[in-house]
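Slide 14.
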Amino acid sequence: MEAILKVKNLKKYYKENKAVNGLSFDLYEGEILGLLGPNGAGKSTTINILSTILKHDEGEIKFFGRDILENRKWIKSQLGIVPQELAIFEDIPAYKNVEFFTSLYGLSGKVLRKAVLEALSMVGLEDKKDIKPITFSGGMKRRLNIACAIAHKPQILILDEPTVGIDPQSRNHILQSIKKLREGGTTIIYTTHYMEEVEEIADRVVIMDSGTKIAEGTLAELMESYRNTRLYKIYIDSTSFQYMDRNKFKYDFFYEIEGIQKVVFTDNCFSITTIKEIENLDKIILSLVDRNLKISHITSEEGNLEMIFLKLTGKKLRD
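Slide 15: predicted structure.
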């Protein structure tokens, strides 16, 4: 299958900082590609370049075989962009919001009206079309944001953290809408800080760190590559830090234990990836008890994306 988007050796510099540094990946028709990385990995810069907001410094990007630098206007017409920040007018009705953004792509008359109503229906806001979004919940505003991006029926939809800061019901509605869009033939690039969303909807995943790709594949392929890894989450009672600065707490001692691969400490929780075949939980617990840390509870996980991400980057997705 021929890729409809090819990114090859992409680079973007900000003075001495290499925001994107040799990134390469392909996007295939009808798939949802999850683009993951910790903060500072270069995801937002990559999205801005693909959206034609920024120009890259080196490398090559081709949409449907056309170079992005030579065909910016045409490529824009093929894209739908859902940015992190809401891009809606809160003081005009939902219908008028979608109508305005869709008209920018040349739609008019009956075709425009049909497209607007279909987009509002897709995100479950058809009964709110005459209401101003200033009265909407955060989740409803996010859904309207998506409607504004899909009404012109783009071939590629780029969603940059579309579910940030919303309630579970709205998040589920958005994820179901995204699945329907894929079923209708839309190709999607999806970034998020919620690993479970990628596990639910993505066909393939690209993981970035320090401006470049460090892993790529289907969920099954990634799981197979790291099938011998286990993730322990050890939650520490907050009272353990009454007399110490948790931000200055050193945990290098973990790496003296056989089988330990990566350790991250955030929100009173040690996330520890370890070789599954090596039984070392007793030593991990003892090392914490010896340092007067009170354990509230422990979970053990195998074969999930969070474990793989932690092992590859040494960070949590929200770090």
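Speaker note: The longest strand covers residues 3-14.
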